[in-house]
Structure formats: structure tokens, C-alpha cells
Amino acid sequence: MSAEFPVARPRRLRRNAAMRRMVAGTRPHPADLILPMFVKENIDEPAPVASMPGVFQHTRDSLRKAAHEAAEAGVGGLILFGIPAVKDARGSAGDDPDGILQVALRDVSAEVGDTLVVMADTCLDEFTDHGHCGILTDAGDVDNDATLERYASIAVAQARAGSQMVAPSGMMDGQVGAIRAALDADGFADVPILAYSAKYASAFYGPFRDAAECAPRFGDRSTHQQDPAGPLEEALREVRLDLAEGADAVMVKPALAYLDVIRQFRDTVDVPVAAYQVSGEYAMIEAAAANGWVDRERMIMESIVAIKRAGADLILTYWATEVARAL
Ligand code: PBG
What we know:
The chain has a domain at 28-250: TIM Barrel, CATH 3.20.20. The chain is 38% helix and 15% strand. The chain has eleven helices and ten strands. The protein has helices at 17-23, 60-73, 100-112, 144-160, 175-185, 206-211, 232-244, 259-268, 279-290, 296-310, 320-326, and strands spanning 33-40, 47-48, 56-58, 77-83, 117-122, 165-168, 194-199, 249-253, 273-277, 314-317. Strands 1, 2, 3, 4, 5, 6, 7, 8, 9 and 10 form a ten-stranded mixed beta sheet that branches. Helix 2 (60-73) packs parallel to helix 11, helix 4 crosses helix 5 and helix 8 runs parallel beside helix 10. The longest helix is centred in the middle third of the chain and has 17 residues, at 144-160. Ligand PBG binds at residues 121, 123, 125, 169, 205, 208, 221, 278-279. Residues 121, 123, 125, 169, 205, 208, 221, 278-279 line the site of ligand PBG. This is Delta-aminolevulinic acid dehydratase. 5-aminolevulinate 2 binds at residues 279, 318. InterPro entries: ALAD, ALAD_AS, Aldolase_TIM.
């Protein structure tokens, strides 16, 4: 061993903050971030979501205010979820022009629609009294093709209300194609579809079911969402189908437990790849931080950087405004 050993010293580029900053390969930008927001019909005050400290079910007013804050912080987009006062088996509030989500889309688009991208989650679970993402058969199964008609109608209602992009999250077969055809037929050929392509049947959605009040009354979503143990090829097949049906951007969900899928998508497709850092990912870090067990801000930023490094162009995160400010 020569006296100069080691010649290669990776530590040289880590010597100080300026050096590390200059060579950093992963630089999340505020415009990469999309903030999911909840708006509830007929409430007077924003309601905190117990399992997601810092997240609220908004009133129309508090939603507008939070949307402004996100826009001022430079966030790239908002994705809205609506919680109606009345639910029924077919989720009628979902495509009612006066339904809470449509009202909120009009409100928010009018205020910040020129600054950021206002979009809607296109699904039925927030609107159905049984909490499932579709129309049920008498046997209690989700009827794929009957559900597609509802999604198509909901997407059109959302576009009419000013949604600049729609994001179907129900994992029905053919949902992207059905929505594309309906949007085109209604004069919305310009409205892009962000497809939840690889969406896993995940325990990480737990807190969301409080936030959106959409826990299924019986059963679960494992007949339509992907099995976490399913082969990677299944995710690739889903994304190929969505692209063939006209998806403009694709999503992996959840994010942190599925970084390999994000990377595979980035290496395979030629459209933007989004990743959804879901409610359970948020709750885990907030809860650990509230106990004083972790450094909250560092852990949030590290998780965002990891998702970006894995290949996500866009990141849906409940911390979007805070992270955008920090960047
Ligand atoms: C379905 C939908 C869900 C989430 C986003 N869209 C719930 C589900 O599939 O059960 C979860 C988001 C999160 O956990 O943060 N409309």
C-alpha cells in the first residue's frame, strides 16, 4: 500500500455545505409539489383531522385561504377531495354540478387557477354511503363497467367546474379510456388525465379514510387495488394500459414503500411520473416527531428527496406548502 493511499476520496466533495450544495444531484422544486386538500360541505369551521395533525377538512373559505398560501409558496398544483353532506349508493354528489367538489373547484380555480394547476381526484368513495370506489352489485362486489360510466360523468362534471386535470384513483379496468372518451365528447379534449396507474391496496391509506370519511362499510379494496406482493410486471402492465388509453401523466401510490416502482416507471414511460406520499406516510413522521423521536423537518425533506431521486417528477404531499417554503 503506497503512502498516498487512498487516492480516491469521495469525502472531498462532502467537505462543507457549499460543496455539498453544488454537487447535489437531487433538487426538488416547489413546482414539483402537489397539495392534496379536503373540503367538506356545510361546516362552519375547518375540522382538524385527528390522525393527520396539521391537515384539515376545509370550509369553502378556509380552502380558498389555504389554496392562496400554497400558491404563494410556489406549489405546482392542488388536488381536491370533496366530502358531501349526503351520500348515496351511486355517489350522486360526485357529478352534481352543485356538489361540494364542483363548488370548491370553481372557488379555487377563480382564485388561484392562473398560478397553479387545480385538479380533482376522480373517484366515488368519498360520495358513496357504502364507502366503496364504485357501484356495487347485489352481491356487494364493485361492478367495473357500471362504475366506469359514473367516473366518466364525474370527470366531465369536474372539468366543467374548472378542474384543469383529472386524476382517476379507483383502479377500475378501462377507467382512463372511459374518462378520455367522455371528456373529448364534451369538449374537454384539452384536459389531461393524471392516472393513478400503480395504486396498491395499502395500509398506508389509513388516516385518509378519516380525512375523507370514506372507510368502506364492509370488505376492502383488494379486488381492484394492486397487491403489495404482486409482481413488478403487474405495475408495468397497468401503466402500459393507462398510456394506451390516453393517460398524460402516471402515478405510483404510496411513495416511500414503492420507490422501486417509481424508478421502474421513470425508466419505462415517456410522460411525467408522479408519486403520492400518502396519509400514513404523513402520520408516521408527524407522530414520531410529536413524541420527540425524530427530527421532523429533516425527515420530511429526506423523504421528499428520496421520492424525487427514485424518479418522481411530481410529488403529491400534505407537506407541499411547508416544503415549498423551505426550498
Ligand atoms: C380514493 C383515494 C384514496 C386515497 C387517494 N384517493 C383512498 C383509497 O384508495 O382507499 C388515499 C390518499 C392517502 O392515503 O393520503 N379516492
